[in-house]
Design a protein that fits this description.
The protein is α+β, with helices and mostly antiparallel strands. The protein has a single domain, classed as Transposase IS200-like (Alpha-Beta Plaits). Helices cover 39% and strands 15% of the residues. The chain contains six helices and four strands; from the N terminus they run αβαββαβααα. It starts with a helix and ends in a 7-residue tail after the last helix. The structure holds nickel (II) ion. The site of nickel (II) ion has 5 residues, from strand 3.
């Protein structure tokens, strides 16, 4: 069975017009995104995938061996296809740059997702995303980690620069649900 066939046999539940928390992991947890060039490529690919499968990014964090995204996926977009497209296009760009013809497998198969249920759940995942570099031991404070949307939320007044996210509780999430352009 080809991988295409296998993939088409995997039925995924997806909810139309929802905010998703998504996790994608590199193959064998290789630290692909510790490399600046790879990280830039990931950002570029995310933008081009968004043209194919529109979504709005609420929050993101790119760790060396995985990424977490909090994104609004409109009714017209199938999140499963969106994520496949992200992984596939990244791999293609990687091969193109290195002039590789052979099969390359950079990602752990599939992805993990969670549909955000309500504003409290949104807040919980937003904080999870931004606290993640601390959780994984890369930095002492969320603000010390560049590859996340944390700084954007500091600008919005959601966090203060030195905040320990555990202390973030009372916020009006509605103010926060304005998406922005990931950089
Ligand atoms: Ni993580």
């Amino acid at each position: 069975m080809s991988s295409q066939e296998i993939r088409s046999r995997i039925r995924r539940w997806y909810v139309a017009n929802a905010i998703y928390f998504v996790t994608v992991v590199t193959r064998d947890r290789q630290p692909i995104f510790a490399d600046r060039t790879n990280l830039l490529r990931l950002r570029t690919v995310l933008h081009s995938v968004r043209d194919l499968y529109p979504f709005q990014m609420h929050a993101y964090v790119f760790l060396p061996n995985h990424l977490h995204l909090l994104m609004h996926v409109p009714q017209s977009t199938n999140i499963s296809k969106l994520m496949q497209s992200l992984q596939w296009n990244y791999t293609m760009a990687h091969k193109r740059e290195r002039g590789l013809a052979e099969k390359v497998s950079l990602w752990q198969r599939g992805y993990w997702d969670h549909v955000v249920r309500d504003t409290l759940d949104f807040e919980r995942h937003l904080n999870y995303v931004h606290y993640n570099p601390v959780k994984h031991g890369y930095v002492a404070r969320p603000g010390d980690y560049a590859n996340s949307s944390f700084a954007e939320y500091v600008k919005r007044g959601w966090y203060d620069e030195v905040s320990d996210i555990d202390g973030v509780a009372e916020h009006r999430v509605s103010e926060c649900i304005a998406p922005y352009e990931p950089r």
